[in-house]
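Quick review question:
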């Protein structure tokens, strides 16, 4: 993204595509920041807006392929309850491949699913869970940090559970 782009600035297109072959997902990626409530921005639009089928890379997390944690999210359904880009994410299994494709260079960064977890909203707000999802740097305000083991990690996040008071109750 552009140098100096604030995390409070709105979503920006990035030259990436997320591919999950086992789920038949191939989706463009949008770089997002945070909302005024200090939560990761997950843009929504009108019912037929293509945003429901896009993936969101949190610009405050790492760059896919660099040492550290890159965090992506996507909607599980649209405003009418129809399947969105991450509708089948619950089907991911350890060993499934995820590819972050650079549409400019053609470079692919490959990741393998190692685990899946479901957190309540209360658990998802715990600093130790946030550190697992975003890496230590974004959680404590330092920005993305290299992993102590030098590895590149990818975290995928979406909503799940019951729809209560206008939001799903799990992540």
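Suggested answer, residue by residue:
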């Amino acid at each position: 993204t552009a140098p100096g782009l604030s995390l409070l600035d709105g979503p920006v297109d990035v030259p990436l595509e997320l591919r999950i072959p086992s789920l038949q997902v191939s989706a463009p990626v949008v770089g997002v920041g945070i909302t005024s409530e200090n939560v990761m921005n997950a843009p929504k639009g009108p019912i037929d807006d293509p945003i429901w089928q896009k993936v969101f890379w949190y610009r405050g997390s790492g760059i896919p392929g660099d040492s550290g944690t890159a965090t992506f999210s996507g909607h599980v359904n649209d405003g009418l309850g129809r399947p969105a880009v991450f509708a089948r994410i619950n089907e991911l299994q350890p060993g499934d491949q995820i590819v972050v494709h650079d549409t400019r260079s053609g470079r692919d960064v490959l990741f393998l699913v190692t685990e899946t977890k479901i957190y309540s909203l209360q658990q998802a707000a715990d600093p130790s869970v946030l550190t697992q999802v975003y890496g230590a740097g974004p959680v404590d305000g330092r920005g993305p940090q290299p992993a102590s083991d030098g590895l590149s990690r990818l975290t995928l996040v979406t909503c799940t559970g019951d729809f209560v008071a206008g939001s799903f109750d799990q992540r």
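Why it works: The helical segments are 121-124, 127-134, 136-139. The chain is about 10% helix and 30% strand.
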